[in-house]
Amino acid sequence: MANDWPQGYGYLPLDTVDSTLDEAARRFDGLAGPTWITARRQTKARGRRGRAWANPEGNFAGTLVLPKVADPAMAALRSFVTAVALDEAFVALTGRSEAFALKWPNDVLLNGGKVAGILLESVTRQGRLAGLSIGIGVNLAHAPAPASLEPGAVAPVSLGEATGITVTPEDFLEALAPAFARREHQFVTYGFAPIREAWLARAARIGEVVTARLPAEEITGTFRTVDEAGQLVLSTAGGDRRIAAGDVFFQG
After folding, report:
1. What dotted CATH number matches 10-201?
2. In terms of Cα–Cα distance, which of 68, 67, 64, 96 is closest to 83?
3. Rounded to two decimals, what is the model's pTM?
4. What whole-number distance in Å separates Cα of residue 93 and Cα of residue 164?
C-alpha cells in the first residue's frame, strides 16, 4: 500500500468471500487492531435490513474492523465518521467537491445518485459490545440495476460512468484509509461535534422536505439538522421530530 497508509491499521486483501462483514466476524478474535478486510468478489453481499447488495467486480467491497469499541452510542456515530471520510476520498480522487453529498443515515451521493453505502454491525462477546465492523460498498465501475430498489429510493450510479474517471478498488482504499484514520482520531479526541459539523456541511437536501420511513410510520417534514446524538431532526406541523433510525426518501 501507499506510504501514507495509517499507522496501526492492518490490511487483509482477499479474493472471494461470502461477504467482508461475515469474514470480519469470523476473524475478529484474531485481529490485533483496526483492520481493513477487502474482497474482489462477494457472493452474499448485503446492505441495511438484510437487503442484497450488488457487488460487480471492479467495485469496492470492504469492511473496517474496529476492536475495543465498547460504547454503543459512540459506535453508532461511526457511520458519520465513515461518511465524511468517504466524501473526502471521493473529492481527493476526482477533484469534484460539488458533485458529492451525504445522505442520512449512511449513503454518499454523486450527482444525486447513490454511489456508496455504509453498514454497521456490532460484535458482541458475553453479551457486551466488543467491537464494530463497518461495511462499505462503493460503485466504482458499475451501478446495480435500479429494478431491485424500493419505490422512491435513490437510483444507484457509478463513479466511472458518472465522471469518466477510472479508480481501482486498491486506489480507492489508499485514499479512504488515511481519510478515515484522520477523522477517527478527531472523533476519539474531540467527540462528535467536529464530525457533525463536517457532515452537515456536505448534507444532501438540508432545508428541504423529505420523508423518513420507519417500521410503523412515515414522517414528512423539513430536514432541519442532525442533532448531537446523530438523530435526524425534521420540522413537521406537529413540531420537531427526532429520528434515530429509518430510511429517508426525497420529494422529487
Report:
1. 3.30.930.10
2. 64
3. 0.94
4. 12
